[in-house]
Amino acid sequence: MTLPIVHSPAYDAQFPVGHRFPMSKYKLLADALVRDGLATKDSFHVPAPAPINWVKLAHDTEYVDQVYGFDVPPQIQKLVGFEMTERAIVRAQCATTGTVMAARLALEAGIACNTAGGSHHANSQHGAGFCTFNDVGVAARLLLESGEISSALVFDTDVHQGDGTAEIFKDEPRVFTVSLHAENNYPHPKQISDLDVPLPDGMEDHAYLKTVTLTLEKLRNQIHPDIVFFNAGVDVHKDDQLGRLALTDFGIEQRERLVISHFRSRGIPVCGVIGGGYSKDIEALAQRHAILHRVATEFVF
């Protein structure tokens, strides 16, 4: 059996070269997965744009209507950090469905990954921080609503706190939110996750991996969810433009292995999303994101 991977050409909204958000990384990631033999062009599970009623499970009705109507106020576009063009909006809709699909595939196969997702700064009221919709928020709410799961864990290792996810699920006891993030990085102020693990600037592989291990062990007897949403942001890397940590490629690979092996050894399905990563060397960035998918293939049975 091969790793189920969700991808759509719509994930690349074709931003101008040099834009602060490296939009072309999604296409380059898919190309890298094909080149590495982890997928073929015909093996990707391709998502359609998310139905509007799905998105309203996690987001304010007025905001969702504005996005679907291609009429987002300038002040919200400023919070998101890019112009909300039709391509950008369709990208967000497809990425949201992509995480829903990956979650359902994970429930069937034990593990599955999206080549996008992890848009964790979007809160219930609006988007923010390069995030239009909170795809994990929508997916978890939809699966709970449909009865496909009764509980979920969000294990977020993006370098920035998963503030939007924490806010969306602050009054939802069936979803446990964990965020390991650089303490002094965006956002300011932060929200309160069920478990926040703030990290000091410049943390390197050894100390970081020890912290991940201790966090996983803390969760072992505390929660046994029906699914884990693993946000595998690579903006923890030492060369990331928006990170404050100092991991290497090896450190990221070991993190992925620690997290996935912990939950799969407990029989818990894992849905992987790629989270953040920012670099002018977008080819190197795409290879960094591909680490998640390469490691995930080790746990397909």
Automatic annotation (TrEMBL):
- Residue span(s) of domain Histone deacetylase: 19-284
**The entry's keywords:** Hydrolase
Entry similarity comment: Belongs to the histone deacetylase family.
Protein name, entry field = Histone deacetylase
Organism field: Ahrensia kielensis
